[in-house]
Description:
By secondary structure, the chain is an all-alpha fold. The protein has a single domain, classed as Four Helix Bundle (Hemerythrin (Met), subunit A). The chain has six helices and no strands. The chain starts with a helix and ends in a 7-residue tail after the last helix.
Amino acid sequence: MNLPNKLSIVRIILVPVTLLFMLPVNIFGWEPEGWNSFINSNGMIVAACVFILASLTDTADGYIARKYNLITDLGKFLDSLADKILCISIMLAFIGLGRVSAWAVMIIILREFAVSGLRMIAASKGEVIAAKMIGKIKTVTQMVALIYLMFEPLLLKITGTGFAGYPVQVCAVTIIGDILFGICVIMTIVSGIDYLIKGKQYLKG
């Protein structure tokens, strides 16, 4: 397995690490008070740093694969899979925290299912649909929005414009977060439509 593929796997491994610092522990009613206190006060900052590290591996694996001609069908699959697992997992965590709308995340997940289904059909015909530029832009908007939301509690503390907890209060800081997340939802829809239109030949018959 080449280096870009290993980086994609590292990105997947970092997902549960990120979630560990995002969500308080509650196992059948058992809640470790000290750990959950740390999570509620500083966990999101640690989670944001881990998420940024995971996001950087997305840039690194693509750069290395192109520079050293290490592009493989497995690499295309792992890169796309790692991006989806990373972003959707964090979005689901934010639903649990009451920060983002379940409907918005549902739209994003439906888009991912549709594009993945299209890729499966193409694969059955011996072809691989690699990530397009608009798909990469979609991923970037998702990561930017999620990084902002992860730093949002810290920004609320610094600015003193709202309650630095969940659910958040409406203020300038949270409005910016809503706008960024709205942009990533729109880009997700647009890129999904683009994939389906350009891949319609795989749907014939």
